[in-house]
Amino acid sequence: MKKIFKLTLVLVVIITVSAFTTKTNSTDSGYKIGDVATDFELENIDGNVVSLSDFEDAKGFIVVFTCNTCPYAVAYEDRVQGLNKKYADLGYPVIAIMPNNTTVKPGDNMEAMKTRAKEKGFTFPYLMDAGQDIYPQYGATKTPHVYVLQKEQKGNVVKYIGAIDDNYQDANAVKTKYVEDAVDALLNNKEVKINETKAIGCSIKV
Description:
CATH topology: Glutaredoxin
CATH class: Alpha Beta
Number of helices: 5
C-alpha cells in the first residue's frame, strides 16, 4: 500500500512539474530554436496570398498564431498591434496566422477575421491557415503562440518560441516582455537570453 502511495505521489509531482515547464511543446514535433522555417503561401484578409519571401527588406518576422474567439488571443490583440507598430519599420513585421478549424470555430472564419481586423485596425497581415498545414510545421499548440524568426543566408531561423510576455491578464503588470526582448537582442546582434517559454492560451481547434 505504501509503495502504491509513493508511486502515486511521484506521478503527481512529475505531472505538476511538466505542467509548469518552460518548454513550448511536450513532443518533438515542430520547430526548435535554430531550425529554419519553411516559407508558406496563405490567404490574407484582403484576398491576396502572402509569403515571407514577399518581405524583401525584412530582417526577420514576428509570427503570431492567433484567432478571434480565444479570450487569451483577444487579450493580446493590442499588444500584437503594438509589436508591429514598434518593429515593422525596424525590419521585424508581425505576421498573424489564424490556425483554427472554422467548422469547429465559425467565429474564426475569413469574414469574421476581416471584421475583427477592421474593428481593431490591424496593420499587419492576418492570414488563414485554411488547410491547417502550417501551424503543425511550427509546432504551435496555442492561440496566441509566437515564433520570432531572423532572416539569415540559410533562411528564416527560429530564434524565439512561446509567449508574448509574462502576464496575459494585465498589460500594465508585465515584468518581462519576451518577444520584445528577443527582437531587441537580434537588432543589436546579441544572443536571445530567454529563447523559449510556455505559450499560454487556448488550444488550436482541429
